[in-house]
Structure formats: C-alpha cells, structure tokens
Amino acid sequence: MQPHPNVRAVQDALTAAGTLDGAGERSMVRLLPDAVHTAAAAAAALDVEVGQIANSLIFDADDTPLLVLTSGAHRVDTAGLAASIGVTRLRRATPEFVRAHTGQPIGGVAPLGHPHPLRTLVDTALAAYPEIWAAGGVPQAVFPTTYPELLRVTAGTPAEVA
Questions:
Q1: Are 109 and 102 in contact (CB under 8 A)?
Q2: Phi, psi of 52 (to 5 degrees)
Q3: Crossing angle for the helix pair 5-17 and 147-154, nearest 10 degrees?
Q4: Among 98, 111, 125, 134, which is least packed, fewest CB within 10 Å?
C-alpha cells in the first residue's frame, strides 16, 4: 500500500534534511492504528508525556501564515505572542487557510513538507525533552525528532508561546 501523498512529502522532507530522532537515527514517519487529533491522544498512543508532543498550529498573522510548534502541555497565548512578534491580529486559521498554506488537514499538520516554507516559532518548553513527536501530514501519522533538529529542519525561531 502506498503512503498518503502528505506522509510521503513529510518523509521526503525529513530524509532530505537528514532529520534525526532522539536516538540519533534517521527520523521516520510512523502510522498509528487510529487518528490522533489531540496531543493527549497522541501521547497515549505513543506512551509518552503530553509535553513531548509538538502541536503544529497554523495561525493567521495579519493574513500571513504562522506555524507555531507548541508543547502539547501548553496553550498558545495569542495576545502575548502577537505582541512579541509585532502583528496586530493573530488568530487560529480556518481549515481552508491551513490546507491552502500547508497542503495538510488540521490534526495532521506536520512541521515540514509544505508547498512553501512557513515562518515558524518553536516552543522553548519542547527543549526539556530528549525526544519529541510531531504530526506526519495526516492525523494518524507521527515522527520522532529532537528540539535542536526541529529548529534546524524548520528554520524555526525558539519562542515562549504559552
């Protein structure tokens, strides 16, 4: 069975970037038996702490996409984040906006594998974990990596987002 095109795009991006997991091995997208639409569900399926889940949240920042990779243990402080990055309006994007800018559905948005690079902020709380897990392009796909790798492969900026 061929993987979903989104999963293939994410794996191709991981491979091209030489992304590593917490053990220093190549990061590989893993398909879970069921979709995991929340950090808690992903953590339970992987038997890890909810804080190890890197939620990929797309925001509409003054009509420009902003990807915020936040620890599953946090909620984004949109007012504080907007002020810190100098935008007047920061709101959760619509499903249509998310798909237009990532090619991926809400609940499966990966940190990479998008049609075009996105401005990305990475929650500094994720640095506390030796391995973190992110979505792999569809709601049942995930992959392991590390905080330094996530910063590197997304060209992300460390940020306090909660």
A1: yes
A2: -80, -5
A3: 100
A4: 125
Token representation of residue 96 = 């249509």
Residue 157 burial class via C-beta count within 10 angstroms: exposed 0-12, middle 13-18, buried 19 and up: exposed
Residue 5: band (very low, low, confident or very high) from pLDDT cuts 50, 70, 90:
very high
Tokens of 70: 């936040």
Which tens digits make up the pLDDT trace of 73-86?
989 999 999 999 99
User: If phi over 0 gives left and psi between -120 and 50 gives alpha, with beta otherwise, what is residue 49?
Assistant: beta
| Cβ within 8 Å of residue 42, ≥6 positions away | 32, 36, 53, 72, 133, 135, 142
Closest residue by Cα to residue 135 from 112, 110, 113: 110
State how far the Cα of 93 lies from the Cα of 61, in Å rounded to an integer.
Answer: 9
CA distance 20 to 134: 13
Residue at 154: amino acid letter: T
Q: Which two tokens stand for residue 128?
A: 């506390």
Going by their DSSP bridges, the two strands 141-145 and 132-135 should be labelled as antiparallel
